[in-house]
Amino acid sequence: MMISKKMEEALNQQIAFEGYASFLYLSMATWCDHKGLQGCAKFLQRQSDEERMHMLKIFEYLSDVDGFALTPGIKEPPRKFKTVQEVFKSVYEHEQKVTQSINKLVTLAKNEEDHATQSFLQWYINEQREEEALMRTVLDRIGLIGDGPQSLYFIDKELDALNQAAAAEAAGGAGA
User: Fold this and answer.
1) CATH number assigned to the domain comprising residue 81
2) Which residue segment(s) compose the domain that 27 sits in?
3) Which string of b and e fits 29-41 if b means at least 16 CB within 10 Å?
4) In this structure, what DSSP letter does residue 147 have?
5) pLDDT in tens, 22-42
6) Helix, strand, or coil here: 89?
């Protein structure tokens, strides 16, 4: 099975997009770590790892369909942020952009009658729905906590609880 050059190029652009997201979240994690927000840092490191995995899935898919995956040059993401609230608002906005990009890929695959790529991208559609829902939950919790003097402590505790829930879920899924 061969993939069209147009689809290959579009998937390579998505590789770069996913790679940038991984670096962006890693940069945010480092910022959080320097602010003493280890729960937030760990959460964002996990998100960074996930984005890298998303990128690698496309690499593997392109190989499977006789395409060529390009290793992108990735521009350096910002490393300074004003507030933890700004960090997570940026994450949510970035996830919305990723969703738009995936939707464009699906449309292209449909237009090209590339059923294999359409099927492959279905996983990303579901993943993005989950990612956006998670980030909305994080923003909602941050909003409920507010921005009083102790807010950073409680925000960090909330994200650490999400980390522990994800770790428990991963441990439970590993044996299944």
Assistant:
1) 1.20.1260.10
2) 5-165
3) bebbeebebebbb
4) S
5) 999 999 999 999 999 999 999
6) helix
